Amino acid sequence: MRALLGLLLIGAMTSGAWAIAHWEPRWLPVRIIEVEGELHHHSSRLLQEAIGMHVRGGILSTDLHEIQRAVEDLAWVRRASARRIWPDRLRVEVEEHRPIARWGRDGLVTADGIVFRPGDGMIPAGLPLLEGEDHRAPEVAKRYLQWRDQLMLVGHIIQALAVDPRGAWRLELVMGTEINLGTEAVDQRLARYIASAAQLEAAGQPLVVDLRYSNGFAVTWATNAAPRVRASTDRPTRSGKRG
Predict the structure, then answer these.
(1) What is the architecture of the domain spanning 9-96?
(2) Which residue of 56, 119, 189, 236 shows the fewest CB atoms closer than 10 Å?
(3) Tens digits of per-residue pLDDT, 195-233?
């Protein structure tokens, strides 16, 4: 009797599961998909279509985690969440990445140092260029934001910032000046440049400023803008050590 009762229970459960799978999409279908969030690179319609491809079953049996993963797999999406709205609606909230700069040849990077690659050529125009190994992106993004604000106080804008595999930092300004900071004490070296920026500009047009010295820096001037005034800081002490 116990064995028979067990078989009957298993049969009832199997039949019930089949009935739910068969009839639930008809009784409780998903009729509306809502997409919420500040969207700049994905339209609500395209997201609804992408979500609709993963709606299998009715409002109760649709896998919300599968929908969330599918949306977060889209290049511009930082995070997503999905929930049911009774009786026939799914609501998906989307937050897109907000890049502060280009990253290398084909990527973008956020203020948190998250690198993503749209892969569809959708790289916004006018963004500065940051370069480095991907695992250093948080450090590069942090330094960019810090140095951007410091340089803006003296009227300069960063066009590019790079760190090579050795850890040497290099800046390019919109005005055309390249700043080599080296690998050591880079914040102090940049502060040295900022303190002398006005004096350098009064002297001429610097093309390259090499700050890889312990107590000075070297300047390469534009050929058509030779220095008019010799600044005491434009030549390093030759005993200074570069790094």
Answers:
(1) Roll (3.10)
(2) 119
(3) 999 999 899 999 999 999 988 899 999 886 555 444 444
pTM, whole model, 2 decimals?
0.79
Domain map (residue ranges) of the chain:
9-96, 99-221
The answer to whether the beta carbons of residues 211 and 181 sit under 8 Å apart is yes
Residue 9: exposure state from Cβ atoms within 10 A (0-12, 13-18, ≥19): exposed
Residue 121's contacts (CB-CB under 8 Å, 6 or more residues apart) are none
Burial class of residue 228 in the structure, from the number of CB atoms within 10 Å of its CB (0-12 exposed, 13-18 middle, 19+ buried): exposed
pLDDT in tens, 49-59: 889 888 888 88
Residue linked to tokens 């064995």: 3
113: left (phi over 0), alpha (psi -120 to 50) or beta: left
Contact 142, 150 (CB under 8 A): no
Query: What does DSSP say about strands 158-163 and 169-173: parallel, antiparallel, or unpaired?
Result: antiparallel
* Residue 5 CB neighbour total at 10 angstroms: 9
